[in-house]
């Protein structure tokens, strides 16, 4: 029988030897059913399998008891349609764990659409088989397996296909193991996104890259603050674009200052500036601005110098506003709304300085 | 994270406190000469920037700006300083047409750029920003983190400054 021949041709695998015995016993009985399933159009897997279940009881029992032959039948079932999972769910009868295993593995196989392409034709071409094998996770075991089972390919029988599938299954099982080892050894062969992430995180064990990551996170936090600060940036994703926006904003602000200074210079000789009116005007305009993203750094050494401040013309009544009081007190509370009540200073050693505003970075 | 809101009123106060008297002084130094307009502009610009630098002490950029305006020499030479500031201004003006370059580059870039390309672009932007912010090329802001936080404070102070100047012009 063809089936026997197919099975016999693969004597190198121990499962093949098992299959020999089983196939010899049941080949005659199942061939017709198998052929029927094969020729079924892309129909329901479940229906074809349950159709098979309508076999006479002894055959069904044999089906259950022999995982290999069950695989023979299960094999063509995915042929018409790719999703074996449907068909797996239609199992209504108890069966042994080996069957579950193999069915599970088959479902993984069937997830590869190429198996269907391979199985539909009665004369599967070696190329299609090879392509399907190669599309599976490339493992060193596979080429060896494919080569050994290539002689089977020319046999246009289900048995052959099932054997190939079994090989592939075996290859797949081993490929899974080698995959896990590959994952550990080299981080380049991942296909799953999860493994990608893990691979990247694997690099973080290096202290240098840990610091790099921490730095990166800090930079990203600052970028977020800047995004809040610059109008219209929060929707933009991507650091470069956000930086572009920031550049534009800074340049526009600088241009505005230029323009206003020119206007001021034009106005200046004629008008004596009135401080009070300026302050009352400002209190409204200032509160409208969005300054939530401001980060205030630690003090700079220059700030501790007191000399330069005194050189500038300052009216006496303004000095009270400009000298930060040590501790936490309001500044400029005489004319501006006291909403902002707390001034946080880095008072470590510098609060004595009259002109230093040391504002601590709070993040 | 509201320390900036706290700094806001003090900034305004200091800024105005510095600038208004300075401007008044300019007005009082009446010397009828043809060049006065230009000088006035320079002086005003100088005073505006000095007011900014003094109102926002504690930042690297304000420190750098102050030093650019008065390179730690104790001469209060307005013309000289405004010359140097004018040079700074020219930088601004020269960079305005250059501004279109990063945008153009952004458009040309393939959206599926790789990580390294994105990082390079970031670097380009950051170097450009360093030119914009006073002291950006200096030693204090070599670190990107610091640069970004300085940018935050600089942008906020610029906005404040614009508001102050507008209100000064509006009500006088």
UniProtKB/TrEMBL annotation, chain A:
Record-linked Gene3D superfamilies: Helix-loop-helix DNA-binding domain
Biased composition (Basic and acidic residues): 181-193
PANTHER family: STEROL REGULATORY ELEMENT-BINDING PROTEIN, TRANSCRIPTION FACTOR BHLH48-RELATED
BHLH domain span: 203-253
Listed Polar residues bias regions: 115-135, 146-160
Keywords carried by this UniProt record: Nucleus, Transcription, Transcription regulation
Bias-annotated ranges (Gly residues): 1-11
Protein name: BHLH domain-containing protein
Residues that span the membrane, as ranges: none
The keyword Phosphoprotein appears for this protein: no
InterPro entries (alphabetical): bHLH_dom, bHLH_ZIP_TF, HLH_DNA-bd_sf
The keyword Transcription regulation is assigned to this record: yes
Spans annotated as Disordered: 1-21, 115-193
From TrEMBL, chain B:
Keywords assigned by UniProt, alphabetized: Nucleus, Transcription, Transcription regulation
UniProt main location, coarse: nucleus
Keyword Transcription appears in the UniProt entry: yes
Subcellular location(s) of the protein: Nucleus
Matching InterPro entries: bHLH_AtIBH1-like (IPR044549), IBH1-like (IPR044660), IBH1_N (IPR059002)
Superkingdom assignment: Eukaryota
Annotated IBH1-like N-terminal domain residues: 10-70
Keyword Nucleus: yes
Family annotation (Pfam families): IBH1_N (PF26576)
Protein name, entry field: IBH1-like N-terminal domain-containing protein
